[in-house]
Every structure is written in C-alpha cells, then in structure tokens.
C-alpha cells in the first residue's frame, strides 16, 4: 500500500462543509504570512490498543490491558518527539510551495518562535498563541497547522497509527479565515498492513516510520491546496533572499538516535524508560 493509499484516504476523510478552499484572489491580498505548527496539550501520543481490543488478551497473560497501554504509550512518546511531529508538518508543507510571493516573503520561523516565546524547543506550545504579536514583525496572516490527536489504535487484532487535526490560513486583523482543511488519517480504517504493538514495544522506530509517512502525505495535500488553480502566477522571488525569508530554512529535522532495546520474551512489553 504506501503513499498512494495514504493520499486516497486523506482525500476521502477531509471533505465536507468544515473545509474552505483557498481562492487565488484571497491569496493575492496576502503579503507577509507566518507559519505556525502546534500540538494540542492532550493530543498524544495515545495508545488505544489493548484496552480497546480484546484480541490481545491471551498474549498479555497476566499483564492488565491498562498497564500494557501505558507501557506502549511510553514507547510511542520516546519514538518521536512532539516537536518533531509538529515541525515536520510545517517544514514539509512550506518546502513544497512555489518560489513566489507571498511565500518567499514569509517570516523566518526562528523570529516567529521568538516572538511567540516558543523558541523552537522540544515542547511546542499547546495552547493557541497570541497571534497579534506577529504584527510587530509585519505579518498580516497566519498559516496554522494543529494536531488534535495521534497515536496507535487497534480493531479486531489489527493495529496501526492514526492522526487527526486541521490546518487553516487566516488574516490576523479580524481573524477572517481564507482556508481551512480538517484532516484524519487512520491506518486501521484504511486496512493497511498490521503494525504489531508488541514489535513496536521492542522497536518504537516502527511507529515513527509510519507516523512520519502520514505527516509527509498530509503536508503534500496542504501544499497542493495552498496553490489555488485560479490564481495567476505570482511575482518571482528576489535574487537574494532577505533575512526574513523562510525558503532557505526548510530542512527536515534530524532523526533522534535510536535507543537500545532489551531482548524480551514473546508477548512481553518493556517497562517505560525512566
């Protein structure tokens, strides 16, 4: 299955009245956007595997489902940081946008983070920041990505990663939205290959690989929608990027080192790291 099936599911689940397409005429009136990506405070990662699916009861032996989910959730947390999840969505969306205005005039992410006092550190701000502060940097609009829930779940013995949230673009003055796109990607509903939770407990990078693949497909969808087909080609970028341009900073974050995992007996989930 792979990226094509991811995209098909994304398109299927993000339609509806909650969406608002970006019009070329609206984008023409934007001159200085700021990009923000954040994860809500209770968004996860969550393990909804063992307590929600009795198919694993025999494999758990004496381990309570609640405790098994707690241990797996600790492994999911260590597999990929909230900061990397959030930033990957922002960076990979931005890097696919065309080299034209208003994107080449977007505020540099470091300046945005400093103004909003998030400083691009490990934990991203969970609550919506005060976007009015960005007007001090000359921003007139915000492209915001919000992850509301993510983790692993299972149904009838088949487990996989899931993620949901929304993206939007709005003018800071008045908060008028000109683009909104809710999204939900669920590998279990899709019928994708089973992501064995016991294997994830031993090798959390398996969850990281699936989640980052989902983020990349969502980012590609967002980048496509931020290029409205009814818009005339924008002005070319300047020959030398200014200090506020973000198109020179769209690098992917490095993968964290993979910790060594102990050998475990079949069906055993490791204790969470201290």
TrEMBL record:
N-terminal signal peptide: 1-23
Tagged with keyword Signal: yes
Assigned keywords, A-Z: Signal
Region named Disordered: 225-274
Protein name: Lipoprotein
Organism: Archangium lansingense
Lineage of source species: Bacteria, Pseudomonadati, Myxococcota, Myxococcia, Myxococcales
